[in-house]
Amino acid sequence: MFKRILIANRGEIAIRIMRACREMGIETVAVYSEADERALHVRFADRAVCIGPGPATKSYLHVPAIISAAEITAAEAIHPGYGFLSENAEFARLCKKCGVTFIGPSPEAMRAWGDKVTARSNAVRFGLPLLQGSEVLRDAKHAIAEAQRVGFPVILKASGGGGGRGMRIVRSESEVESAFASARHEAETGFKNPDVYLEKFMERPRHIEFQVLADHHGGVWVLGERECSMQRRHQKVIEEAPSPAMTPEKRAEVGEVIRKAILETGYRSLGTLEFIMDEQGSLSFLEMNTRVQVEHPVTEAITGLDLVQLQIRAAAGEKLDLPDTRTWPLRGHAIECRVNAEDPRTFAPWPGLITEYYPPGGTGVRVDSGVYGGWRVPAHYDSLLAKLIVHAPTRAEAITRMRHALDEFIVGGIRTNIELHKRLLNDREMIEGTMTTRTIERLLAEG
């Protein structure tokens, strides 16, 4: 097992990884920008190294600085968390070249599954259901031809990224050229990869994802699914597990196809396969995220597993001591609300000084956070402040518990989306479990 791990991230996920390391007896190294000098992850680490100015391109995305920090602190491994360099195959390759273990899949597996177009080919190869779509688009003329073949509406997507960036919905031929240009520009800016492709666009699907885990000894586990339909502009807002739309039979059927695909492609780490579900309940593969997900705590709650510890153990080459079961037993229901520093009306980020901070507690309540009262939220990074997770025996009880937890959550000095979450938890579609990716848009349109 590793003796010291450098965490190439910040905020709540850095602290989450530190907690896992502490329980395993592993020392931690934090890296931080000048803007994060007083951040909690800097305080909680055994050692901390400043890697540059506030902008992420000069700090958390600056590969030479991170590799150097690992070398001077004698860190044996680097955990990338999510975002930043977590799905950067070149960074994983450089870690290996420098004798540092990258806690994640191999560069080859990351390219095979992380690139969206290549992942679509894998889906076809292993029999995963797939939406009609295209290969990488050469130019606007090619995009128009493929859109006509697939049929409008279509959605343009960045091949090398996600999180809503590089995505454009196109409903007519006249929109293709400008959408193609803007999607390529955003993909190049966000992921240093301008490649885009297109898929048939569903108007009101559900977004469902399956959690996988694999070690280096042939062990592969599919740990149930998460419902991520409550999202705005392709950004998830509320996640839950299991999905109220999934049946045990469908879970077992899809899980077995996923398990075989992961095993045969040699993928060895945590990963998440994302699907959309149509009104008839049919699933279509979208993409794979080759890292720990923001919403991993809801899976931890219903499986009783520490996914981050298991990810670290797998990276160290351990044979994971887990039951060899085709369908992992799930217990109760879990919901996660992402609490962001943002204007609840415009959704614009709202950096500034947190004058008061009181997270909720009690039975079945968990808060993963990287902030405190008196800390100033910087303007350079994602607006996520905290993840509020609840677990209860039933979905109805989990919704009730989340409502009470949101009532207890106090953040002063800045604006947050806590009131939006309260409203979402009282929406008819959320209560009935019939939400789609357009639910929040409908609510906003209703005022």
From TrEMBL:
It catalyses: N(6)-biotinyl-L-lysyl-[protein] + hydrogencarbonate + ATP = N(6)-carboxybiotinyl-L-lysyl-[protein] + ADP + phosphate + H(+). Gene3D superfamilies: ATP-grasp fold, B domain. SUPFAM superfamilies: Glutathione synthetase ATP-binding domain-like, PreATP-grasp domain, Rudiment single hybrid motif. One of its GO terms (molecular function) is biotin carboxylase activity. Residues 1-445 form the Biotin carboxylation domain. The keyword Lyase does not apply. Keywords: ATP-binding, Biotin, Fatty acid biosynthesis, Fatty acid metabolism, Ligase, Lipid biosynthesis, Lipid metabolism, Magnesium, Metal-binding, Nucleotide-binding. Residues 120-316 form the ATP-grasp domain. PROSITE patterns: ATP_GRASP, BC, CPSASE_1, CPSASE_2. Its EC number is 6.3.4.14. InterPro entries: ACC_Biotin_Carboxylase, Acetyl_CoA_COase_biotin_COase, ATP-grasp, BC-like_N, Biotin_carboxylation_dom, Biotin_COase_C, CPAse_ATP-bd, PreATP-grasp_dom_sf. Pathway: Lipid metabolism; malonyl-CoA biosynthesis; malonyl-CoA from acetyl-CoA: step 1/1. It comes from the Bacteria. SMART domains: Biotin_carb_C (SM00878). PANTHER family: BIOTIN CARBOXYLASE, CHLOROPLASTIC, PYRUVATE CARBOXYLASE SUBUNIT A. Acetyl-CoA carboxylase is a heterohexamer of biotin carboxyl carrier protein, biotin carboxylase and the two subunits of carboxyl transferase in a 2:2 complex. This protein is a component of the acetyl coenzyme A carboxylase complex; first, biotin carboxylase catalyzes the carboxylation of the carrier protein and then the transcarboxylase transfers the carboxyl group to form malonyl-CoA. This is Biotin carboxylase. The gene is accC.
